[in-house]
From TrEMBL:
<protein>
    <submittedName>
        <fullName>Phytase-like protein with esterase activity</fullName>
    </submittedName>
</protein>
<dbReference type="InterPro" id="IPR011044">
    <property type="entry name" value="Quino_amine_DH_bsu"/>
</dbReference>
<keyword id="KW-0732">Signal</keyword>
<feature type="domain" description="Choice-of-anchor I">
    <location>
        <begin position="334"/>
        <end position="416"/>
    </location>
</feature>
<dbReference type="InterPro" id="IPR052956">
    <property type="entry name" value="Mesenchyme-surface_protein"/>
</dbReference>
<dbReference type="Pfam" id="PF13449">
    <property type="entry name" value="Phytase-like"/>
</dbReference>
<feature type="domain" description="Phytase-like">
    <location>
        <begin position="484"/>
        <end position="746"/>
    </location>
</feature>
<feature type="signal peptide">
    <location>
        <begin position="1"/>
        <end position="28"/>
    </location>
</feature>
<dbReference type="Pfam" id="PF22494">
    <property type="entry name" value="choice_anch_I"/>
</dbReference>
<dbReference type="InterPro" id="IPR027372">
    <property type="entry name" value="Phytase-like_dom"/>
</dbReference>
<dbReference type="InterPro" id="IPR055188">
    <property type="entry name" value="Choice_anch_I"/>
</dbReference>
<dbReference type="InterPro" id="IPR015943">
    <property type="entry name" value="WD40/YVTN_repeat-like_dom_sf"/>
</dbReference>
Length: 770
């Protein structure tokens, strides 16, 4: 790599580190010269808080959350299980489940909590009781936080969505959405179109005195008494002003509520004391370029969307004038970012443009499966002040992260850092009194190890643990764009460049690309990408699970097939062009299913004789149970021979043990052995060594090579305080003797998407501990 490119990478890394720690932010506000950043302290899977006797695999989620006045008891809604849950946050590093309250105890087993808030000693639970879309109904249950008994209940007159409490605790504002039926068509329209009666409205609750039995509701109609459109809504150009469908509410210190009408692409301001509509304005459209819009397996940031309605979901007041909206989209739009509006004029004061989408790419959280829809889908936004600095938190529903911005100047937000979340972050809950942020995630599928959780972050000094790897920005056409990356399932040292590494993308992306990594930067930086091509020079997509950079130039790839016969070794030249394909022997290929080649390495002796070693992930069906093969391919002779490696065993249903990587370390072969489990269930993420055989294997039964445990990586994976990743898949020793490992994020499919890049220490520390 030229010196100039190395300088660029290190510069990017330095900027990233500065940005992520928020260096200088507090000093700029006269507080302290120490850098501040949010760091993850714990991830609590809410299935662990289920009622006794319930199947752990039963779906249970965390959507919207609230917190007690002392910041120690978190309450979350679980719409799937029709209940609310309680967590003890006294220790932010060890949240503790406090049990749940089923809505079947308060009403009907089909009642669904949609939002929750806290006022003093009371929990306000917003409940959808609608028997159908055309007969919406709901109630507000007031629960004692101490006894968990219902104190009172108020009829809301429709199907509720979100709730907000005024700063002075005098009012609650509830969006009564009366949502549309996506399978119903209005006259002259298509399924899911508007309008669909009955119209939604805003419900104000006067929190009079300290006794909830005195609380009263005041509806604010968003249509005329006869169902006609309000003139202000028509003037604002709302899509279907007779069917406003309010979505989200936020209240400023002047007791003005901002109400998003997501499907109508509108925002309405209402004065809470009087119930008077102050203003209605259109969220407008945006044209965004430099994003990925084609679901083709390639992270191609040259696409664009034109004149798309923002369709904001969540809204949050920044101060008493400016509003922040998360522009998720729902019906006709979604602009893949967030905006700041001037509430006095209804004009956009700032818009994220393509920057939010590009954060996902930079941090390896790009969801290729969503690019033709709404991309990152920024759904949630929250605003709070910590240590004298006002922050905005914007959550990406589809890329599983929360972006943090300094919004001390509302019309000029400054990006500070990305916080990794579990799948589908829904509720963003700042707890500034304790310097905490809680994020609740709603996706839950036990069959693939994706579980809903509450993740806790704390603001403090020092460098946050995430990210461990990012990508640099390079020119792409007329634009500068981050290098797209993900699914890093392999690592190799770079010959002649002692501090650099290579990785390669697998079948999650096409075409395949070889990525150059500078692991000495903090975080590590992907500095370059080389596209792999076939023998004819055409870009090609291999399911490359292993890579080895040859000292004599070029690369070996271990390519896994969808069937046994699809497994092969592929030799590339230094330009990434395919020069040789080595098939598996038929008798081996026929005994494999879809788990085949997972790693490749090689040796070249003093005479120039090259021997390639490859690891199969699972057993060949004709081999003994629990014994997997290590293949030795003599390049000059064109012959294979095989050794055996005995795997650990597992008794967990649905689990299996296999190999994920192989690399030469002196006179040994080092392999990664792992289970298929993630999160709190993960058990085996280890590096073992076997002696490197000097000659080909003798004919006959597999000779099993005795293994020695070199390093247990599980503690390092758990130390992230996040969801323990399943796929520890890449490992190598760099030219300077340092050992690195990386997890495959599966391109966010049935995975959180977080990549953990680990520096395990020197080769002597990892492999010669005795």
């Amino acid at each position: 790599m030229p010196a100039k490119k190395i300088y660029t990478a290190l510069t990017v890394a330095a900027v990233a580190a500065s940005t992520l720690t928020g260096a200088g932010t507090a000093a700029a506000h006269g507080k302290s010269d120490r850098p501040l950043s949010f760091d993850r302290t714990a991830t609590y899977p809410v299935f662990q808080n289920r009622p006794a006797g319930e199947d752990p695999a039963t779906p249970t989620v965390a959507e919207i959350s609230a917190v007690s006045d002392d910041g120690r008891t978190l309450i979350y809604t679980d719409a799937l299980a029709r209940r609310i849950g309680f967590l003890d946050l006294t220790r932010p590093d060890k949240p503790r489940g406090l049990g749940t309250l089923s809505l079947s105890q308060l009403g009907d087993a089909e009642d669904e909590p949609t939002s929750v808030a806290v006022v003093g000693q009371y929990v306000l639970v917003v409940v959808n009781t609608s028997p159908s879309f055309t007969a919406p109904s709901g109630r507000l249950d007031v629960i004692s936080l101490r006894t968990r008994q219902r104190v009172t209940s108020l009829d809301l007159g429709g199907q509720p969505d979100s709730i907000a409490i005024s700063k002075d605790k005098r009012y609650a504002a509830i969006a009564i959405e009366n949502e549309r039926d996506e399978d119903a068509a209005p006259p002259g329209g298509e399924d899911g179109d508007l309008p669909q009666a009955p119209a939604g409205f805003l419900q104000i609750v006067d929190l009079t005195g300290g006794n909830p039995s005195h609380w009263r509701t005041r509806p604010v109609a968003l249509t005329g008494a006869d169902g006609s459109a309000l003139p202000a809504f028509v003037a604002a150009g709302f899509a279907a002003p007779t069917d406003p469908e309010p979505e989200y509410v936020s209240i400023n210190r002047n007791n003005e509520v901002a109400l998003t009408l997501q499907e109508n692409n509108g925002i309405v301001l209402v004065d809470l004391p009087s119930g008077r509509i102050i203003r209605a304005f259109n969220a407008g459209t945006a044209s965004i370029s430099g994003i990925d819009t084609v679901e083709d397996g390639a992270i191609d940031l040259t696409g664009s969307i034109k004149d798309v309605p923002r369709e904001p979901d969540a809204v949050a007041w920044i101060d008493d004038r400016y509003l922040a909206t998360a522009n998720e989209g729902d019906w006709r739009g979604g602009t893949r970012g967030w905006s700041v509006f001037d509430s006095r004029t209804g004009r956009v004061a700032w818009d994220a443009g393509n920057s939010f989408e590009r954060l996902a790419v930079t941090y390896g959280l790009h969801n290729e499966d969503r690019v033709e829809k709404k991309g990152t889908e920024p759904e949630g936004v929250a605003v709070a002040e910590y240590d004298g600095v006002r922050y905005a938190f914007v959550g990406s529903e589809r890329s599983n992260f929360v972006a943090v911005y300094d919004i001390s100047r509302p019309a000029n937000p400054v990006f500070k850092q990305v916080l990794p979340a579990t799948n589908g972050p829904e509720g963003l809950l700042p707890i500034p009194g304790r310097n905490l942020l809680a994020v609740s995630s709603e996706e839950d599928d036990a069959s693939v190890g994706v579980r809903a959780s509450v993740t806790v972050y704390e603001l403090g000094k020092g460098k946050p643990a995430f990210p461990t790897i990012v990508s640099a920005t390079q020119r792409s056409g007329v634009d500068k764009a981050p290098i797209g990356w993900g699914a890093l399932g392999a690592l190799s040292a770079v010959p002649g460049r002692s501090h650099l590494l290579y990785s390669v993308t697998d079948a999650a992306y096409s075409p395949s690309r070889i990525l150059t990594i500078d692991p000495t930067a903090e975080p590590a930086v992907i500095t370059a990408a080389l596209t792999v091509s076939d023998a004819g020079g055409n870009a090609v997509g291999y399911d490359a699970e292993g890579i080895f950079a040859r000292p004599q130039g070029g690369f070996w790839l271990a390519v896994e097939g969808t069937t046994g016969a699809g497994n092969k070794l592929v030799r590339l030249d230094r330009d990434g062009v395919t020069k040789q394909v080595v098939e598996l022997p038929a008798e081996v290929a026929s005994g494999l299913a879809k788990q085949g080649f997972e790693g490749v390495t090689a040796t070249t002796d003093s005479r120039g004789r090259e021997v390639v070693w490859a690891a199969l992930q699972r057993e060949v069906s004709t081999d003994p149970a629990g014994v997997v093969r290590l293949g030795r391919y003599d390049v000059a002779a064109g012959t294979w021979s095989w050794f055996g490696y005995r795997l650990a065993s597992t008794t967990t249903a649905g689990d299996w043990i296999g190999l994920s990587e192989i690399t030469v370390v002196g006179d040994k072969l080092a392999v990664i052995e792992r289970d298929k489990l993630n999160g709190p269930a993960a058990r085996i993420k280890r590096i073992y060594t076997v002696d490197l055989p000097r000659t080909a294997a003798a004919p006959g039964p597999l000779r099993v090579l005795p293994k020695t445990l070199a390093y247990d990586v599980l503690p390092e994976l758990r130390a992230t305080n996040g969801w323990t990743q399943e796929k520890l898949e890449g490992m190598t020793v760099a030219g300077d003797g340092q050992v690195y490992a990386v997890t495959d994020n599966d391109a966010l499919q049935d995975a959180t998407g977080e990549t953990v890049f680990l520096h395990l220490g020197s080769s002597k520390r990892v492999f010669d501990q005795r």
